[in-house]
Amino acid sequence: MIIKLSIQILAKRLEDAIEQxxxxxxxxxLIYARPIFHTGEKTFNSNTLYMANAETLPAQxxxxxxxxxxxxxxxxxxxxxxxxxxxxxxxxxxxxDINNKVHxxxxxxxxxxxxxxxxxxxxxxxxxxIDISEPVFGNGLSIMDSNYNIIAQTALNRxxxxxxxxxxxxxxxxxxxxxxxxxxxxEIADEKEVFQFPADVLPFRCxxxxxxxxxxxxxxxxxxxxxxxxxxxDASMFGHLASCLEDxxxxxxxxxxxxxxxxxxxxxxxxxxxxxxxxxxxxxxxxLGWYHENTYRIMYIKPSSQDxxxxxxxxxxxxxxxxxxxxxxxxxxxxxxxIVNISIIKISGDDFFAQFNYFIRxxxxxxxxxxxxxxxKNLREYYIQARxxxxxxxxxxxxxxxxxxADNMFxxxxxxITEELPADFLRSPVAARLQRYDEANQTEYLxxxxxxxxxxxxxxxxxxxxxxxxxxxxxxxxRIREIGKTDFKNPDELLHLQLSLRxxxx
Length: 506
Fold this sequence. Notes:
Layout: H1 7-13, E1 18-22, E2 36-37, E3 43-44, E4 49-53, E5 62-63, E6 67-72, E7 84-89, H2 95-117, H3 125-137, E8 141-145, E9 150-153, H4 155-160, H5 173-180, H6 183-187, E10 195-197, E11 206-213, E12 216-224, H7 234-245, H8 249-252, H9 262-271, H10 278-288, E13 295-302, H11 305-310, H12 313-323, E14 327-332, E15 335-341, H13 349-362, E16 366-369, E17 373-374, H14 379-396, E18 402-404, H15 405-417, H16 429-441, H17 445-454, H18 459-466, H19 470-484, H20 491-505
Parallel strand pairs: 2-4, 3-5, 4-6, 6-7, 16-18
Antiparallel strand pairs: 1-7, 8-9, 8-12, 10-11, 11-12, 13-15, 13-16, 13-17, 14-15
């Protein structure tokens, strides 16, 4: 297929010869093939570019939508028509010289288009495509994948703007966090057409196009206004470049390498309670230098709604593994799961988690931590610990960033106790007797017992807390023994009583 150009592209490249223009194509459409010479006809075909001398044009003519003329000299007034794109060349110019220049323009774009279509045979087709495209636009180009990594960029982009990229080619965490919380950025996440970023979002204006495969975002190709101002024709030619890039499906199919990771799949199977191949699992662990005698911990990270919408979770998985050695991160049901080998990190565990917790706060995440464990025999149970820590922690302290299973273990146990029966049906007989007596006699023996047990059965401390005399406290304890029918000596009865009182407060 021969490339077609817009009238704006031709006008830009012939601007030294053009004296006047009357362009009506506000969309800058790529509709014109190489020009043909006008041979006296009075009807001008749609989307057709003609070459003509003004004196040979008929005084009356009919113009179809999108017809265009490159005219030597000024034509009759009828040619200044709303349906005609007209470029007027000075009378001193030779028609055949202008025709040669126009064909040279088409030759250059045909060469570019041919290079784009042949890029699938290159070792790195994406880099090759933007390298041969940079001279066409005169500005730098880059390609950002769904992990917010710049996987290809041209020379002008590297020299025009290098800020914000880490040593791995990824955009900085601060920039990604800024993106995901920016309303303007969120609006373009699913945009299918060419769009422009204003300069107040990035340090410069950008023309962008999202590339999808099976409705899944794969890449964003970016033209940055770092060297010269954008031309009116840039958007249409950029769209052509993007359409060629979409024709390389084999290079677009693996958008998230973590999804195809053998170890990630094994961890997911273990966490889900499914069968897995132990020998393959051990082999994958050995590649990391991880062994069953090492100590580990699991972090169960809940991303923000902006992370899910903007698909930044894979970016953060990659970022975690790069910035925190001896971690392995993967996505499981919209949760970022991180396993850290405590035994071989080069800093203390306290320093590691202090740094990691800062990362959690900066990303506006919430995280649940499992207990420490050795080996992977009970990996699923520790995975569940981390999940429970986050779930209960978010209910109890929703504004806190980090939650450990150790801090939430007792609440989990209380929740499990009442999973089938409400607390009223599990109440200690001692507590039930005291409550009935209090309701009938307007006494406070159940409250007194609660304070007494809370102070480890210290009568003096309990009396002080209740603002009563110690003798009164001792009298109440005797009455509690009598009414509740207990001597406080049976450990099971005491545990049941304390659980009942705790469930009443839960």
